[in-house]
Design goal:
The protein is an alpha/beta fold. Helix content is 44%, strand content 16%. It is built from 14 helices and 12 strands. The longest helix is centred in the last third of the chain and has 26 residues. The termini are far apart.
């Protein structure tokens, strides 16, 4: 990744451009350019050998105009304040696009969790939770899983926060284990949202899924679910990648076999040896000859260095910010369709909202109800973005930000500025 790349600056560039397209004055949108609160903490952890290491942790609360802050926690060696600020801003716009009553937040710890033992990971999570506890809560800020965090980590946060508060508080996070108040369908929701967005585009343009080839960058939770669901809809998955390597098969990967292989903890694609399957680099994956590309890894994967080499006709952003502003300009000029992250991967936060509602009401919905409600929200949001794009004769990213900014500016005007 480019060390000079600043995702927060990219966010501000998009905001300024779209606000101008909508005819807003600077005073209308200035509040949307700054996080409301930024917390950086130093997290001491006793390692298994008795030494103490200090990790940097972050929680950024971007905007609360439309509801409590909402956004994931990631454990990754590249986590820094600018990244977390950008991610929290994207969350604010994402929640507005799909019209759920949340603001935006994000957090993380600068750490490679693969270098920690399980006990060290638990201690890191508990101490980090304690240090951000004053600014999170079911009515304040609700974290969720993100890169390298999962339901187990969320369960540890629930327990730690509940112990600090003196009462059980399952609603402090979403994406937690079902047994602790998690929602059915939450783990698959982001990938399912990517599939729904892709299928809605196909429907609008009369494209038969069975004629479409798909490449997926990042076979973590989002990418693997999206790939499997798209395959179930008839798409042929011809390439995918994880942190170890990429694999390709023009005849189509056997998704049932691949999903079974990846379900085993620790299995990586570099060890996936099957007839007709060959290894490819990450760059080859991104520029693979396919109809649909789903970047579902980290931000800034498609930029000015490779955007002109992309062969896919449609990009569906499974990750947050996988295409830089400069890369986006190149793709737009080339006529490549981009279904933007704040729409395409919003299924996760939509289902997180469902989980939160269930917790607040002490209820549990069945899987059919969750998936049905998720599809209703995603289809409505997709239609709204398409309508806005047609009204303004612009691309889907600009249209999605138009929808979000209009809702946020309206909320600001209705609430006013305190005092």
């Amino acid at each position: 990744m480019d060390n000079n790349y600043n995702p927060y600056q990219d966010l501000i560039k998009i905001l300024d451009k779209v606000a101008g397209m909508l005819g807003y004055e600077e005073s209308d949108v200035s509040i949307l350019k700054y996080p409301e609160r930024e917390l950086q903490v130093s997290v001491p952890v006793e390692m298994d050998d008795g030494t103490v290491k200090v990790f940097q942790g972050y929680r950024v609360q971007y905007n609360s105009l439309r509801g409590p802050y909402k956004g994931g926690l990631r454990y990754h060696p590249q986590v820094n304040m600018d990244e977390v600020k950008a991610l929290s801003g994207w969350m604010a716009f994402k929640c507005a696009v799909v019209d759920v009553p949340y603001g935006g937040g994000k957090g993380g710890v600068t750490v490679d969790p693969n270098t920690l033992s399980h006990k060290e990971l638990v201690r890191l999570t508990r101490r980090f939770t304690a240090m951000i506890a004053p600014i999170i809560g079911p009515e304040i800020d609700i974290p969720a899983p993100d890169v390298n965090t999962n339901a187990e980590i969320m369960g540890i946060i629930v327990d730690t926060y509940s112990m600090l508060k003196g009462h059980s508080s399952p609603g402090v996070v979403t994406g937690k284990p079902i047994e602790l108040g998690g929602s059915l369908g939450r783990a698959e929701a982001t990938g399912r949202g990517v599939m729904i967005s892709t299928m809605e585009y196909f429907k609008k343009h009369g494209i038969d899924p069975k004629t479409q080839t798909v490449a997926v960058q990042g076979m973590g939770n989002v990418g693997s679910v999206a790939a499997n669901l798209l395959n179930e809809k008839g798409c042929k998955i011809v390439a995918c990648s994880d942190v170890s390597t990429g694999i390709a098969c023009e005849a189509g990967l056997d998704m049932a076999d691949l999903m079974k292989y990846l379900s085993v903890r620790g299995n990586l694609l570099k060890d996936y040896k099957r007839d007709g399957v060959r290894m490819i680099s990450n760059e080859e994956l991104l520029t693979f000859d396919c109809d649909v590309l789903v970047p579902a890894a980290l931000e800034n994967q498609i930029n000015e260095t490779n955007a002109d080499k992309i062969k896919a006709k449609i990009i569906v952003e499974g990750a947050n910010g996988p295409v830089s502003v400069k890369g986006d300009e190149i793709l737009d000029k080339r006529g490549v369709i981009v279904i933007p992250d704040i729409l395409a991967n919003a299924g996760g936060v939509v289902c997180s909202y469902f989980e939160w509602v269930q917790n607040l009401q002490f209820m549990s919905w069945n899987l059919e109800t969750v998936n049905q409600k998720l599809e209703e929200v995603m289809v409505k949001a997709f239609a709204g973005v398409v309508k806005k794009a047609e009204e303004h004769n612009t691309n889907m990213r600009n249209a999605a930000y138009m929808v979000a900014i209009e809702r946020l500016v309206r909320a600001k005007k209705l609430r006013g500025i305190f005092p």
